[in-house]
Amino acid sequence: AIRRISEKHDKPFVVGCQKVDNTQPRANAVIVVLARNSELSGMISSMKSFERHFNRWYNYPYLFFNDGEFNETFKAEIEAHTKSEVSYAKIGSDMWGIPDWTDKEAAREGIALQGDRAIMYGGMESYHSMCRFYSGHFYNHPALEKYKWYWRLEPDIKYFCDITYDPFLHMERTNKTYGFTIALKELKETVPNMFRYASAYMRSNNIKSQGLWEMFLEKKPENKKEDKTPLPEEVLRAEPGSHKLPDIDPDNMEGEKYNMCHFWSNFEIARLDFYRSPAYQNFFEMMDKSGGFWNERWGDAPIHSLATGILLGPSDLHYFRDFGYRHTTIQHCPANAPTRQLPREKWIEETTVKKEGMKKAIEEDAFFESWDTPRENGVGC
Ligand code: GDP
Ligand code: MN
What we know:
The protein is of the alpha/beta class and 381 residues long. It is built from 15 helices and 12 strands. It has one domain: Spore Coat Polysaccharide Biosynthesis Protein SpsA, Chain A (Alpha-Beta Complex), CATH 3.90.550.
């Protein structure tokens, strides 16, 4: 069953656990963490798992970001749990917090309102800052400058299968840009206007889908009406700081509609030059100008995801179906992945016929096979 789905793929990507192969020189890569002193025990638990299942054989360096200072206890404990090099970097006010060009009072009022409405993390300015940092800034931090690749790690995550090959090298060799292991639906109320802006960015820059954008659309492409939402002009004319999001009901939007799918960004393996490209940075700037990181609670996960939809094609992505991974309550377990249960042909039939437009994408890269399929213990969308 495995061979049937994997002919086009590297063996290690699909087969997973096998003899450790760490004989090749390392990639130019780093493990990126953002954390606070208070998260030490959750961080140690993540590192134990990450080291045990991968990094004790590969020894990739860690880089810890913080908007504050890590204390000596934190550093000593972290360093006691790895042989790898560990460094720390402070995030300055240029990359954290409400920027000066924003009406801070209005932004804080917006945040308080989201708190009142019990939007998850909506009332926490620090969480908004975190999402904005990971959406638009981390890749430009001087501490990351020398690296080409990163793997994102968080407190309270768990890996439960050995990763016996170097995913950076395999992504490099197969020319991949962005890797994920869990995709799920975003909480609607955190991103009411995100998709309008993202789709406006695409239209106003005349960017054509390379086959991935369709994955984020609720409507089937053949029913697609012309998007009449009067956004491009508005967006283009917006002055930094005006941050006036239109008062709309996303359910009544015309044209394309976001299906809320996104790659869960607490796990990511990706190329930094994707984000450093002018296209991504322009995209972020336009999104940022709208004020959505404060007036709504835009997550970095849907921002990264929609950016892949705008700027990449299916073959640029890699689904790490072989990584057993858990973050708090949601997990991906390779043993339950649908690709292990159904032959590829059947998947294509069952998933694409219902989702026209995806067939091409699926043929190009089998990662869509898990899309929209219930799993025993995992989540898909
Ligand atoms: P969740 O995964 O969406 O529930 O959010 P988390 O609380 O895990 O936050 C995501 C990541 O950002 C984690 O690595 C946190 O440690 C980190 N983080 C969140 N807020 C802050 C903050 O205010 N300061 C710092 N330094 N890290 C933060
Ligand atoms: Mn988390």
